[in-house]
Q: What sequence folds into this?
């Protein structure tokens, strides 16, 4: 006789029911009054801690525990965001680099979430953007702007999709520097595109070259009068082509 077959329990913990939820005998879901999952309530206390900056800015003592603190007085660790993403369930995560310079990196995180009852059993893609600069990072983080930007974009993508209003520890400015008054374009796809050219006319002249070379064609481009008229999706495509033009 062979050895008794070992029962594997691990895989059964990741089986989802017809609502797209994990085994509810093991995962204790919290629900809102409207029937949706209260993902905020699913965050374990071990992933939360007081937001030091919030208390220091108001001249208050920093609490030694999170008991009684509001969401605006807390920060959530990256580990907590990762756990929430696993609980919700996703198919893939990928990143698009909007800008990559020695002192400024901007990244968009796109997560393809699996279907569940909250989305009408339809898969949903959700994205969010974040940046990392020498002015909003400190210490060793200034040497890894790409990684910091990716982490920030991931955190924002997860918590905004799941309606979690606690700021991620990875998102906050830890440089200790006062905020600068910026005169540059907003950090948006068309704003980023604007920075690549001397003027809108310069951009349009380069766009004609792309059209002639059959590298990029869009019938709606003739109606664009300013950079703000360019749809975000098209601006991202053109950002990738900016170096060639």
A:
């Amino acid at each position: 006789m062979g050895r008794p077959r070992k029962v594997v329990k691990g895989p059964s913990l990741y089986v989802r029911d017809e609502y797209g939820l994990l085994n509810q005998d093991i995962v204790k879901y919290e629900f809102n009054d409207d029937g949706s999952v209260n993902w905020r309530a699913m965050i374990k206390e071990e992933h939360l801690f007081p937001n030091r900056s919030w208390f220091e800015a108001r001249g208050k003592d920093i609490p030694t525990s999170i008991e009684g603190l509001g969401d605006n007085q807390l920060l959530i660790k990256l580990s907590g965001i990762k756990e929430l993403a696993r609980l919700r369930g996703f198919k893939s995560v990928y990143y698009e680099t909007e800008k990559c310079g020695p002192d400024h990196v901007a990244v968009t995180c796109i997560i393809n979430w699996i279907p569940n009852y909250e989305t009408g059993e339809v898969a949903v893609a959700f994205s969010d953007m974040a940046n990392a600069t020498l002015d909003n990072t400190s210490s060793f983080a200034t040497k890894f702007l790409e990684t910091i930007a990716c982490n920030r974009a991931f955190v924002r993508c997860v918590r905004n999709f799941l309606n979690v209003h606690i700021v991620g520890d990875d998102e906050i400015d830890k440089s200790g520097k006062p905020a600068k008054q910026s005169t540059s374009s907003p950090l948006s796809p068309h704003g980023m595109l604007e920075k690549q050219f001397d003027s809108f006319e310069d951009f349009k002249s380069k766009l004609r070259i792309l059209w002639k070379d059959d590298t990029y064609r869009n019938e709606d481009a003739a109606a664009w009068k300013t950079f703000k008229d360019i749809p975000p999706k098209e601006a991202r495509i053109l950002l990738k082509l900016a170096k060639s033009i």
